Amino acid sequence: MLRESHILLFSIFVAGLCSIVYELLIATTGSYFLGDSITQFSLTIGIYMAFMGVGSYLSRFIADESLLQKFIGFELLLALLGGLCVPFLYLAYAVDVSVQITSVVLTAVIGTLIGLEIPLLSRLMEKHYTLKANLSNVLSIDYFGALIATLVFPFILLPWLGIFKTSLTFGLINLSIALSLLWYFSSQFSESPKRLLKRAFMLVLCVLVGMMIFSQKLNKAWNGHVYEDTVVHSEQSKYQQVVMTRHKNDVRLYLNGGLQFSSIDEYRYHEVLVHPLMRRVEKAEHVLLLGGGDGLAVRELLKYSQLKSITVVDLDPAIAELARENHYLTALNDKAFDDPRVMVHHQDGMVFLSNTQMRFDAVFIDLPDPKTISLARLYSKQFYLMAKKILKKDGVLITQATSPFFAKSAFWSIHNTLQASGFDTLPLKVNVPSFGEWGFVMACKSECSIKQDYELSNTRFYSSLTEPMLTLFTPDLAETGQLISTLDKPNVLYYYLDGWRYWN
Prior knowledge:
Elements: H1 2-34, H2 37-58, H3 67-83, H4 85-94, H5 99-124, H6 131-185, H7 191-213, H8 215-226, E1 230-236, E2 241-247, E3 250-255, E4 258-262, H9 266-280, E5 286-291, H10 296-301, E6 309-313, H11 317-325, H12 327-333, E7 342-345, H13 349-355, E8 360-366, H14 373-376, H15 381-389, E9 391-400, H16 408-420, E10 424-432, E11 436-444, H17 467-471, H18 491-503
Parallel strand pairs: 5-6, 5-8, 6-7, 8-9
Antiparallel strand pairs: 1-2, 2-3, 3-4, 9-11, 10-11
Transmembrane segments: 7-26, 38-59, 71-93, 99-120, 141-161, 167-184, 196-214
GO molecular function, one term: spermidine synthase activity
Function: Catalyzes the irreversible transfer of a propylamine group from the amino donor S-adenosylmethioninamine (decarboxy-AdoMet) to putrescine (1,4-diaminobutane) to yield spermidine.
């Protein structure tokens, strides 16, 4: 009897562990494909909790007769659907079925099955404990399993296994509940249901193990279907999915499915990011680059011999490692990270600004677009005030500011937020064929302007001849009173999502 109660308690722990991981997997994968992390996590949590309530309610209609066999059947179904939740979402994205609808359906079904678990396990444990002890044991162990899941998911599972294999792994872990119950209680089942459960167990096991064995090939096939060009590098880092493709002489980098650069025209973007500012602060010696782990902006900065240090702050070590070791990328960035003046810190940009004692002549912000709440804070007034604090007296800042055409309101919100932070500003734009019109905002502690009396010999696009194009904003791109963005009210996020919703 003691062993029986231990096996049931083990089942409760695994149930709590898997339930949270499935929730995190669905929300994270939805965020990868759809971009709006607030919406995805809110929808997933809300629907999950609601349908757990539905499952708990439905448990009252499950008769005590053959309760254990029915519970094992539910666990087999949950292990199959939970283990395949990420492959299902990948498939939906690949065949152009609504990822949002697929995510909602999966969340509802898995939530219902998880809602069944605790009431049914509580009923199975009634003969071992009093009602008070039973509820205490079941809920405390279930919650502890959930705690373990939230700790191992971001720090171990995602960086080590990636999101695809994590899904399959937890399907197999969930399957251990059915295995332990089948093994221990086998003698209590009649022959027919026992045979049926064993066959169902083997079927689910074969599906999950088979998917795990062929996961690399499946991912390769998925990448080949989703990305038009040949995939030459693919990995799931601790923070994001990293994919590099190549077609003839066009090398492209994608993070979570979003294009970061094309080797055909990236020089236009990076030259405008770097040179207008550097021509204004000709005596700059110490500069800070937030983002830019691919080394392409560093390549442009290294054209200035007076620079004594270039401090790069990029959160994901996987990007910098790729920039150092991938021969396609080192050919593009001219092995920029091998220069002794370049120092790389793998840290959140806001955390770095709040902790550093260093002061810089210039700050370059080459961060991803503000498409999630965590990224939107890096375009807030508080963030720009922190950047202003580490700038020297005549220091200058420039940030990429998304597209003034596709996301006009987001662009001008960034511009207005910098002005509200006490900077004089100069909006810039450039046509990058891979992206369309792209915007930057230069921000100065004193009057912002660009020196016109110069000519650069080592750039492919940027020159005094292109200068008028950078500062010319036609009437359809004009500012129309956009609100500033703060930590409390991340308006840039809402502007961005609204602007890109049509084009996506």
